[in-house]
Amino acid sequence: MSIEIVKEIESLKKDRNALLLVHNYQDPKIHELGDFIGDSFELARRSKFTDKDIIVFAGAEFMAETAAILNPLKKVLIPSSMAKCPMAHMLTPKKMKYYRTQYPNAIIAVYVNTTAETKAMADICITSGNAVRVIRNLDNKQVLVGPDRNLAHYIQQQIPDIEVIPFPKVGHCYVHQKFTPSDIEKLKVQFPEAEILAHPEVKPSIQKLANKICSTNGMLKEARNSLSDKFIIVTENGLVDRLRSSFPTKLFIPARKDAICIQQKKITIYNLYLSLLNNRYRIHIPPNVAKKARLPIERMIELSG
Q: Looking at the domain assignment, is residue 259 inside a domain?
């Protein structure tokens, strides 16, 4: 990492009164520059309570949209216009409208990994870290969850007394879909004492093999508190980098070397610098959409405790 460009980024952050939020899946070099690093829920909460004038989001576009929805008077930037989560576009407003008519008594809980337009049609938002807690706190026995079917399966296993209905034929994270039972079984033979930490977006067959199923922030907490010093990490490999940096005396084994989110990796040190320098790329959400989408996001934050 160029010392000069790092100095420029730090100087621009100070001059522009900017907050840099960095997702756990980002490159370690970007982690070093972040004011806060975390999962999508923690970063959403951080954005809501900032007094900075500009929020720069090193993460997926839907995360930056969430920050913009919660901060309508602030400028929200994303360094790359190509950092779009494919899953966020799998649950369209058209599908939302159709399934609302099919399940009129259900609460619709959408993953934060959705577009602003989809959030605007939901009753509440959820993340992988708070989904179980939020849905458990709802006063309803039927909840329609999407777009991630694997997350819906995980929630159902944790709350069997509530009917959790995944949106039919929608959707998944292509990175988490890569993991297979054989990937995990091979590593268990190689590292029999390792604790297996898996993200709720992995397939049910992988969830069965995990010691703990948790969000990226949950994995950081488990690594900190566990007596184990070896972990098989079943999520995007950016988190493996962060775990290794945070706990250098412990061993973290990626479940697959190709578990890479291509879209999030579109964000680089250089386009982060250009974003701050030239105010690019600014997130624009129609005010009527943002107003409607703010309600399910704020409700999520309230029920998360």
A: no
